[in-house]
Design brief:
With 382 residues, the protein is α+β, with helices and mostly antiparallel strands. The chain is built from 13 helices and 15 strands. Strand 5 and strand 6 form a beta hairpin.
Length: 382
């Protein structure tokens, strides 16, 4: 196959072009038709300067120059390295900027203003499986609201700071020292300060400042008898004990324990403990089990009362002529304390079966001094 340049057409003329086409088409009629059309086109445009400028170009470079094609027009692909024009506006699909910072500004993506700057802690938060309660904490206005939400209101849920409490917390406390905080009153505190030995466990003991012996006599029926005794340490009384010297057939006696008023030392309030009825039909020593009464150090009143059938019962009683009750509670008269019999307790007429609630006043409660040896003694076991 023989070819020719476009530049050859002008110098060779129409005859050379005809010969070229005939050679290409091997004498076919289609070649002649194409030639005829080409010749018509050439004849119509051969006189224009633009056409003449094209057909006389020696090569592709000259042709590109004639057509005004820059280097960018000849590239198969275009990248950032080929671009040297003005920044492409946002509305045209660009960023309108020549730097990343300016591009973010134009696109409304300023870091720290329009979008959150990267932070590793925020990454950690994003990884959490948060709860509605936890997220609600982020909305709290202040520390007070946070304490309320957490059940930590100062002065309500938790103790407010206090320098004195801080000083106490810094102490190395001992069991004895801590026990002082449980003292009911000054009398209990004074008692705790006394040097004392512990009460024996599993053995019957008399309340302190009490003496028994001598020749007791019957207190009589429906007669309340009481004596004051001191408990020197916190105890839980397991049982009480009493002794009948002379029986009273078919009779019954009951025992109780009262607290003492911290000012007057008189018995006060309802009984702390009351026993079931105990028979007086036999002599001997008797134990009342199942008491279960816990007492703090202090003075307490041990009381007893017999029914009508117990009128002749005689009990081991507080000793006459021993002034322990006079030292503890005093007497309403000089002679009641200094008599040969001596004060053994207090009492009054009272119906068996119920126990009175006392006011802490000997006079108001009608409790009279007892100087005879008719106040039954009671022991206890822890």
């Amino acid at each position: 196959m023989t070819t020719a340049k476009i530049s050859d057409l002008a110098s060779a003329g129409a005859l050379a072009l005809t010969h070229l086409i005939e050679t290409e088409s091997a004498g076919g009629t289609s070649g002649k038709a194409a030639l005829s059309a080409l010749m018509t086109l050439i004849e119509a445009n051969i006189g224009t300067a633009a056409f003449r400028a094209l057909i006389d170009d020696a090569d592709n470079t000259a042709l590109h120059t004639t057509l005004g094609l820059g280097a960018l027009a000849l590239l198969g692909t275009i990248n950032g390295g080929n671009w040297s024009g003005a920044d492409l506006a946002v509305v045209d699909g660009g960023t309108g900027a020549s730097s990343a910072s300016a591009a973010r500004t134009n696109l409304g993506l300023i870091i720290g203003t329009d979008v959150q700057a990267h932070d590793a802690d925020l990454d950690s938060l994003a990884a959490l499986a948060t709860t509605s309660y936890g997220r609600a904490l982020l909305e709290l206005a202040n520390a007070a609201a946070l304490r309320t939400a957490g059940g930590l209101v100062i002065g309500t849920d938790v103790q407010a700071y206090d320098a004195d409490l801080a000083a106490v917390a810094a102490l190395t406390t001992a069991t004895f020292g801590r026990s002082l905080l449980t003292m009911a009153d000054a009398a209990a505190l004074r008692a705790a300060a006394l040097v004392k030995r512990p009460l024996p466990t599993g053995r019957f003991v008399l309340p302190e400042n009490v003496a028994v012996g001598g020749s007791p006599s019957a207190p009589g029926a429906n007669t309340l008898r009481m004596f004051a005794g001191y408990i020197r340490e916190r105890v839980t009384i397991a049982s009480l004990g009493f002794r009948i010297a002379t029986l009273s057939a078919s009779g019954n006696v009951q025992f109780s324990i009262y607290a003492s008023d911290p000012t007057t030392l008189a018995p006060t309030g309802a009984p702390l403990y009351t026993s079931a009825s105990q028979s007086t039909s036999a002599t001997g020593s008797f134990e009342i089990t199942g008491v279960g009464l816990t007492l703090d150090p202090g003075y307490y009143w041990f009381a007893s009362v017999g029914d009508a059938s117990a009128a002749s019962a005689v009990y081991t009683s507080l000793q006459a002529g021993e002034s322990s009750q006079g030292r503890i509670i005093g007497g309403s008269a000089i002679g009641n304390v200094l008599s040969s019999g001596g004060l053994t307790g207090v009492g009054k007429a009272f119906t068996f079966g119920t126990w009175p609630t006392l006011t802490g006043s000997f006079t108001t409660d009608g409790l009279n001094d007892v100087t005879a040896q008719t106040v039954p003694a009671v022991v206890f076991k822890i």
